[in-house]
Each structure stands twice: as structure tokens, then as C-alpha cells.
Hints:
- The protein contains eleven helices and 18 strands.
- The chain folds into two domains: 11-223, Alanine racemase (TIM Barrel), CATH 3.20.20.10; 235-358, Lyase, Ornithine Decarboxylase, Chain A, domain 1, CATH 2.40.37.
- The radius of gyration is 23 Å and the shape is elongated.
- It is α/β, with parallel strands linked by helices.
- An eight-stranded parallel β-sheet has the order 8-7-6-5-4-3-2-9.
- The site of pyridoxal-5'-phosphate has 13 residues, from α9.
Amino acid sequence: MTALCRATVDTLALNHNLRRIRKLSDGAKVLAVIKANAYGHGLVPVAKALCDADALAVARIEEAVALRAAGVGQRLVLLEGVFNRNQLELAAANACDLVVHSHEQLELLESFGRNSRFTVWLKIDTGMNRLGFRPEEFSAVLARLRSLHAVREELVLMTHLANADVLSSDGTRNQLALFEKTTRGVEAERSIANSAGLLSWPESRAQWVRPGLALFGVSPIAGKTGEELGLKPVMRLGTELIAIRKVAAGESVGYGSAWSASRDCRIGVAAIGYGDGYPRHLGNGTPVLLGDSRIPLVGRVSMDMITVDLTDHPEARVGDSLTLWGAGLPVEELAQLAGTIPYEMLCGVTQRVAVQYLK
Ligand SMILES: *Cc1c(COP(=O)(O)O)cnc(C)c1O
């Protein structure tokens, strides 16, 4: 591969994480969530690597169509369902399970005359207040779904947790109790837990867990890294030094002269910037890995380049590799420094970054 700036995606780590999640989830089935280009790791290659997952989930019909076009035959769930007749027909043609969360979607299914049948994941809103039927509507909606020819008998009942990453949260306890009360006595599989749920709230595991972030080896819980949870980071974002220069004490580096040398320095320039998804918010002192050593970012992140202080590493040469995040430098730590969450960092890796898959 000729590209200097690359994301290396370790599919062995991905499968390690899937096994680890199975173990933590007490035998629950795993709906592997691979929306948003598999959290930046590449939709189709990740789907193919996750052939042991019980089912795959995406947010949008276009993602499902792309998976089917690439020959992915696994059970596939549309987490937001469909929003018009066209999408419903595409979902039928591509054998997708549907989340049904609104009256509009219910009516769409009621008016669907074709012979296709769908497995429905009925979404109940227990406090997130984004998608889902209100608990008091549940019985009536369930009865309507069960009367439809287009809906298979074996439904899954689901809800989504708003605060699963907050261990002290009453919100999660309340959501779990409301879901239990609402669905009590109904014979159907249930699905509640995202990554934070399955890691922190055993009572949320039910028959199906829905991990996204944890599959990629990353922790959704603040102050804990994936590695501390027995997960392995799947992505390494790396690049190379493309120039090295001397900067005298008192001279500044980069746009806005945002950093000045307090001693005579050796500054490395590396081929990565916000045009690749390395956040511009990362400031002076952000760690970058040169081999196993942490070296500090200095000056502003620009579109195609960053600058690092190599003064304490006289052995560093043009062409040496740098790691921006990955094993040894958790994306969780970088996200914190950038004032965001690891989800956004991973999804934010841009098209220009070459992706290499390790098998
Ligand atoms: C994205 C998503 C998930 C996965 O969430 P993670 O925090 O990445 O594990 C699970 N369920 C639903 C409904 C989602 O939209």
C-alpha cells in the first residue's frame, strides 16, 4: 500500500471482541451494530469478518442494500425501520428485519399488500424520548402488528437506554423497570442493551444484546478503556513523518503561531490532519506514538499535516511511522482530549484515509 496515512483494521481483534461480548452477555444472541460505515471501520469488510454474529444491524436502508449487494447473507435489522413505500419494498427485496417505532410505520405495513413477510422489532420508548411507542400504546400496537399478514409471528420487543454509560443512573433502573412492566407476560424475545448496557447492567442483557462500540474494542464508559474491559482496539490510525526541521528557541510553528519553542527543537511533520478526521481541536501536548514512546503534538492541526516535537528522539527519521490512536494510545483518551466521544472520532475518519484489513 502506497498511502502514508492509513487505518489498519484488525479483524482478529474484532472477532476477539465478539467472543468477549458473548462471554460477558451470558449466552445472549449478538446483534452486531455496524451502522455508519461500521463506526468508520468499513461496512462490508466488517460485516464479512463478523460472520459469527447472530445478526447485523444498520441504521438505514442504503446500508442494508450495500451489504446485500456485496453478498452478505446474514440476518439484517434496520434499526430505524423504513420511512416510505419505496424503502419498504427495498427492505422486502433485501430480506431485512424492521424496527417499527411509529404509527406511520405501522400504517405503512398495514397498507403493504405484497406477499413478503417481515420480522418486526417493536420499539418501545421507556425514557429516551427519541424513537418508539409510548408504554400505554404498547398493547394496542402489538395487537395490530399481530393481526398483519406481513408481520411474522416471532416479534422482538426492544427499547433503547439513554444513560447506560452512567453507572449511578436512576434513569437506567427506571427504563428497565418500565420495559419489564410494559411487556410483562408477552411471549417474545427482548432486546435492550447497547455496549454500555451489556457491560454495566447485567439485567439489561435479555435475549439479544446490541453492541456497536464494544465490538471495535472501545469503551463507552468514561474513565475506562476497552483494554481494561478485556477488549482489543480494532483500528490503528497511523501515518509517517514526511519532514523534520530544526526550530530555534523562541520560534513558533504552524498556523496562528499557536506554539513556540522554549528550547532549540527538532520538529517532525506528519501526513495527517483534520482532512483525514484527526480532530483540529486536539491541542499542544496531545500524545502521538513514535514506536512505543509518546511524543507531543505541537502547533495547530492543519488539513493535511500535524507537527510533533522530536527533540527527545534524535533517532527519528523521515519515513518513521506514527500512531495517532490504536493499541497503546486508546481512542478513548484522544476523544476526551478533543472534547468528544470515541464514536465521533471513529466515524470521522474520512474517505481519503486508506484502510488496510489484517486477517
Ligand atoms: C447504535 C445503536 C446501538 C449500539 O450502540 P453502542 O453504544 O455503539 O453499543 C444499539 N442499539 C441501537 C438502537 C442503536 O442505535
